[in-house]
Amino acid sequence: MSKILVTGGAGYIGSHTVVELINAGFEVVVVDNFSNSSPKAIDGIERITGIRPRLVEADCSDLASIRNLFSAEGNIEGIIHFAALKAVGESVEKPLDYYRNNLLSTINMMQMLKEFGGKYMVFSSSCTVYGQPDVLPVTEHTPRKPAMSPYGNTKRVGEDIIQDTVNSTSGVFAIALRYFNPIGAHPSAEIGELPLGKPDNLVPFITQTAAGIREKLQIFGGDYNTPDGTAIRDYFHVVDLAKAHVLALQRMIDGRSTSPYEVFNVGAGRGITVLEIVKAFENVTGVKLNYEIVGRRAGDIEKVWADTTLAQKELGWKTESTLEYALLTAWNWEKKVRGM
């Protein structure tokens, strides 16, 4: 059984991926500093799987702490690296925090693979590396553009750090998964997206507004060149995304990688406007949302969605859940958290 370290494993995407890893038979160690997550996620993972992953509270940008973790654990075969600050708007205001945290943590993880004989890295990248593409949908060959936010730039530079490292290190392999917009929660409602403080993503804003936690949903930008003026994104279920990480890891373990460093887009493969998401949520839940359209937000792009042909062909991955189902699971999770 391979031992896998999941950084940020108590976070939103991390916790769902830990569940899928355990279900696939991996031994999982979680490291998290709980800057935007809760130890309660580990309880949820245990309730779903019957197995409690080992948890180490540490900051991945602190090399000494991470080296201690690797020394204590031994034989960590691979890393799935989620731990990062991820709010686009905040990164524009606090660029140094983002560069320090996101890049140091990535450097440290690659250093530990080299020092302790690990072999595999799955990197949590983002479609932000494409900027505002000239042609849609984007493929893995779509040129990366200068990032529109420091957050986006940390993903771009993070990819480069990993690629350069594996190219110079025999026996180490990496896959960068470029996410589009994961939403929803585990169907058990035991884990889901629970941002500390003000959410940065659309769907928690929607569910918190529906639950009465927020008076009004703000939609950033109503004058984009899109069918209804609101921005277009590629939304898909977080459990589908979690499964992509297991497939990526398995690909490397099975020796099916065609090069030491590979990149795959993961998304639903279709673009949906923000207003369409709002209407879909209202339809599936029966809850009317109080919303207003406000000015554009710094760092946001107008429209992006994925071509996921490569992930289907090479990873055997595609989305299984509908948009409506993803929204329903997000609402069920919100209701459980709020005791509704």
Low-confidence stretches: none
Number of strands: 13
| CATH homologous superfamily classification of the domain at 3-183 and 235-266 | NAD(P)-binding Rossmann-like Domain
Under CATH, the topology of the domain at 3-183 and 235-266 can be stated as Rossmann fold
Task: For the largest sheet, list the strands in their spatial order.
Answer: 3-2-1-4-5-6-11
**Average of the residue pLDDT scores:** 96
The rounded distance between the terminal residues' Cα atoms is 40 Å
String of helices and strands: EHEHEHEHHEHEEHEEEHEEHEHH
The structure class reads alpha/beta
Total number of helical segments?
Answer: 11
Shape: globular
CATH architecture group name of the domain at 3-183 and 235-266:
3-Layer(aba) Sandwich
Radius of gyration: 19 Å
CATH class of the domain at 3-183 and 235-266: Alpha Beta
Helical residues, percent: 40-55%
| Main sheet overview | 7 strands, parallel
Question: Overview of this structure, please?
Answer:
The longest helix is centred in the first third of the chain and has 22 residues, at 95-116. The protein has a domain at 3-183 and 235-266: NAD(P)-binding Rossmann-like Domain (Rossmann fold, 3-Layer(aba) Sandwich), CATH 3.40.50.720. Helix 1 (12-23) packs across helix 8 (238-253) and helix 7 packs across helix 11 (323-338). The protein has eleven helices and 13 strands. By secondary structure, the protein is α/β, with parallel strands linked by helices. It has helices at 12-23, 40-49, 63-73, 88-93, 95-116, 150-167, 202-210, 238-253, 274-285, 309-315, 323-338, and strands spanning 3-7, 27-32, 54-57, 78-81, 120-126, 173-179, 181-183, 217-220, 232-233, 235-237, 261-266, 272-273, 291-294. The strands form four sheets. A seven-stranded parallel sheet has the order 3-2-1-4-5-6-11, sandwiched between helices. A two-stranded parallel ribbon has the order 7-10. It starts with a strand and ends with a helix.
